[in-house]
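Target protein
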Amino acid sequence: MGRMMQERLVRSVTARVAVAATVLVLTFGTLAHARAPEGDFADLAERLLPAVVNISTTQTVQNRGITPEGMPQFPPGSPFEDFFKEFFERQQRGEGNRPPRQVSSLGSGFIVDARGYVVTNNHVIADADQVRVILHDNTELEAKIIGRDPEVDLAVLKVEPKEHKLTAVNWGDSEKIRVGNWTLAIGNPFGLGGTVTAGIISARGRDINAGRYDDFIQTDASINKGNSGGPLFDKDGNVIGINTAIFSQSGGSIGIGFAVPANLARPVVQQLIEFGRTKRGWLGVQIQSVTDEMVEALGLKQARGALVAKVVPGGPAHKAGIDSGDVVVSFDGKTIASTNALTRSVAETPVGKTVNVDIVRKGKKQTVKATLGELEAAMASAKQENSQKADASRPKPGRNETELADLGVRIAPLTKELRQKHDIKDDVKGVVVTDVENDGPAAKRDVRVGDVIIEMAQSEIRSTDDAIEMLKALKDAKRKVALLQIQRAGEPRFVPIPLKS
């Protein structure tokens, strides 16, 4: 190779290296600009940490030993059958000697009012006997549950700050956030205490089948067990969500976390503080999705909106003139793209407010005015009405029937007629179940009409008086479960039934 060729090759390689280096610098320069500037979150975290609290709950769990449902099943006559039966009976006899145990769990929350109001997830404090709030300086305060809303998994607690000056945070507008915006999550992962993680908004409007008001914010900020109930902040330090759930196959964060948006949570929190319960708007319709096959028949241009399948008589929609077959395309100025959108929009609207509802009826768009009622009141009324109908349809008690309200059953002595009716053999002793309350304790444990109660709390039941006296003894002893032995189709089995409190 000549000298000139070598010089050309060197110049060519040098040029290529220079270009590559330029590209590399530009690339890393771009990445550097994509990252948050160093220290960007430090001042923000320092300001927000005092407003985020740890939630510690304690629950009393009764030691029940091995239940009949937990016994292994063996072929009849197997030597293991007698062994496990004897072991189970010893466990049951010793049940009263084992003291209840305390189970603790941890979560997160944040202060929304310096008077002592704290927001967290409902599942964090569900079934808790005691709730304590631990401030950033490790001060522990007893907390009172003010209200809870399982529908969107929120709860409000109240602490008495006493001499402590509490730091509260402000709500942000979750409608204004955009995919790609920076977010900051603060909470108590794995009980470690105040922990700050950062990420971005990954998606909005996620439906994870948690409930009918699903509208989650998705973020890749690390959220783990114990973060539940903690706040998700925007870059200005405003709460834009409440961290509630994660998607994970391992139980740890894989960068897919979900938060209840602030615009959905804020009115719920305000209602819980003011009323101790929610008061959601109610339109009084049953709705279904609009499918592609329905578009032409409904006179629509595309499969959007909420199709009214049924209108509740006397409800707000009925009074407004909305009818079955109408498609709601706009509600109170908000475009309705789906059934979930209408459900959320109605629920977020104050009770008593009169709103414009745009509907499409037989291809023609029109606007009606509807004054919203209260969902909870409507549900309570419907539940009472259904209960009255169920009571009216239930057979009237016979002369010899006795109601055991704490179990949700009616019983009667084993007469010849009842033995024939339910095919109960003459050598079977006990009392027969003649009626089971819908959704009652016994119904939930699959007790059926025709079952024979032969024992209660391992004492023989030979008459309705025996059953009444034994049930009273269990209640007086503050027992929470009645262990029945029943016989069905000649086969005995144990059934633990929670007593009504």
Notes: The chain is about 25% helix and 30% strand. The two ends are 99 Å apart (CA to CA). Confidence is low (pLDDT under 50) at residues 1-10, 12-34, 64-70.
